[in-house]
Predict the 3D structure of the following.
Amino acid sequence: MSRPQGPHRPFFHFGNPFRMISSKGSGLPERLLSLLIAFEETLAERLRKLIPKDKDEVLSLSWMKLAMDSLCETHSGVKNLITELELPVSDWDEKWIDVYLDISVNLLDLCIAFSSQLTKLNQGHLLLQCVLRNLDSSSPKQFVRARSSLDSWRQHISAKNPRVESCHSILDNLVRSLDLPKVKNSAKGKVLMRALYSVKVVTVFICSVFAAALSGSAKSLLDLNVSDTLPWAAAFSALQANVNGELRNVFGSGRVTVSKELDAVDASIKKLYPMIQDGVEPVEVEQFKNSVIDLGKREEKLSEGLDLLTKAVDGFFKIVLTGRDALLCNLRATGTESVLGSNVEQLVGR
């Protein structure tokens, strides 16, 4: 069941920090302003593409893969923006670096948790394969084995994963990082902070949806407020309202399956289980065969979807890790690491 929703957590305690980069009177050079506009318009388009066409898409593995692919593109986009800004790491403020490194650790932890749960679900594939092999027979002994495998599958799927359960506290840490560090006398720094802010908001939202979907609970869902002056705000708000609303409806109705593909497999199993339990009457033979075939098709679709989603999460993990490593290498090369002191040293070791 979803938890009661409290007031939205405000990110801006001292007015709107984006006034400093409005299109009118921003003081930004035209080149920087065009880079920022292009980045934010691309982000808005990505968000619009993620808005589900119907409610059944929300808890589908295909939508989750699309969301993770979109997140990978967004993170790659901000890396390209940093390159185009030609803002060397030596010019980065200490607070920017600390925040970036801390966020990257949290994102890597989330990826590990998501991958852990997807691996767990994929392991259930082996149990279902045993079921299908044993059902390819009319022997009562094989039926007993199939029933045992189905019982094991249900226990395996419903078991809690401590790593996924820990996502809630990690997401809370990321929410606290959403406030923008103050930027003084640096046009490039202002553009960078605004771009990083948008990436952080979208990342926290998508990761909260993954945490909710993979845990089977709405506890990790977040409602993030963003300034309506941002070009991507309308698309983000529409996406967030659509996805979070449907997820809360789903979990509020008592459904706790991770995805519609898993739900489809579960429905086939519920149909087959009484036949396996009580035996198949002669008049039910054809229906039984069709149910086994149906389970096989649904299980295959689930397995394929989990494989593709796992690869997408692994891809995001690599993007975050390589970005973090690149920054640390630059810090060492420029000698900035020694200037920042113990904060970076602690983060490097994590």
